[in-house]
Design brief:
single chain, mainly beta, nine-stranded mixed beta sheet, 1 helix, elongated
């Protein structure tokens, strides 16, 4: 073989190796910059994804889910890529997935967790962007994990966030990353929640609304409860007496305790309001039942 030709082949093989490695991990890859999930020609190989297939959305691309029957085994969303679930659309997931970009709900979009699975990500988020409630539901257990070395910074984590509209997390959730009410109400309902991550009421996006986490189901674990904005609020509407993490209240935030609350973690109070309902107790840094 001619030496110059051999070098050319070697260089070419090296340059395409990363793309081949990406393709090998995907059964379906989006090949159009902006497309609808159900458009067969948007995918390689051709055809709408099936529940047994691993789906990849390359960096910078956008896919719209407007059908209630969208499904795949797992999904990888690249940095800067978006999945927009809108107009009563629903995506059902069955296996571990990675969100480095965004999953956005618009006008009653839903994400269904059909089996126990983990979603990790480096700076990605799952959030309501417009309209009525975005919902995360399903019979499986959803665990969210940070891809980065620490979950102490949202930039290293995947976040579930209200972003630009209210959300309801109905699925059983293990939060080892960030769950955030940002300018709107985020409700924890239906199935129990736990984890060592952050439950955060803030106002980063300056939406002007009420950044409230409504706790309507029991939460346990060592997670940090953090209110760090003047309109931030956490409202406990069910008894949560098996917490082990700290509660941090700053910048005129509000903690409403409508049922018994107990955590072995410390309370950090730097301005704000703690309102405990009549005949209810709140206990910090002590022994819990």
């Amino acid at each position: 073989m001619n030496r110059s030709f051999a070098l050319l082949v070697t260089a070419f093989a090296w340059s395409i190796a990363p793309a081949v490695a990406w393709a090998q991990s995907c059964d379906k890859t989006l090949i159009i910059d902006t497309a609808d999930w159900s458009a067969a020609g948007a995918w390689s190989p051709l055809g709408e994804p099936l529940s047994t297939q691993r789906v990849c959305i390359p960096a910078g691309d956008v896919v719209h889910v407007t059908t209630s029957s969208a499904t795949c085994e797992s999904i990888q969303i690249g940095s800067g890529a978006m999945m927009k679930i809108s107009n009563d659309g629903n995506l059902t997931l069955y296996a571990d997935s990675t969100v480095n970009g965004k999953i956005e709900f618009l006008n009653d979009g839903e994400l269904t967790i059909a089996d126990d699975l983990t979603i990790d990500g480096d700076g990605g988020f799952i959030g309501q962007n417009q309209g009525n409630n975005g919902v995360i539901k399903g019979s499986g257990i959803l665990t969210i994990e940070p891809t980065g070395a620490s979950n102490g910074d949202p930039a290293d984590s995947v976040r579930i966030t209200t972003y630009n509209g209210p959300m309801d997390i109905k699925v059983e959730l293990v939060n080892n990353a960030w769950v955030q009410a940002d300018g709107y109400i985020l409700t924890l309902s239906t199935n129990p929640k736990r984890g060592n991550g952050f439950w955060h009421a803030t106002e980063e996006n300056l939406a002007g609304g009420n950044s409230k986490i409504k706790v309507d189901v029991e939460v346990t674990g060592s997670g940090t409860w953090l209110v760090d904005d003047a309109i931030g609020e956490i409202e406990f509407n069910v008894a949560c007496d098996e917490l082990t993490g700290p509660i941090k209240l700053t910048a005129n935030g509000e903690l409403d305790i409508n049922q018994d609350l107990c955590t072995t973690g410390h309370l950090t109070f730097n301005d704000g309001t703690i309102d405990v309902a009549t005949d209810r107790t709140a206990k910090f840094s002590g022994t819990c039942p």
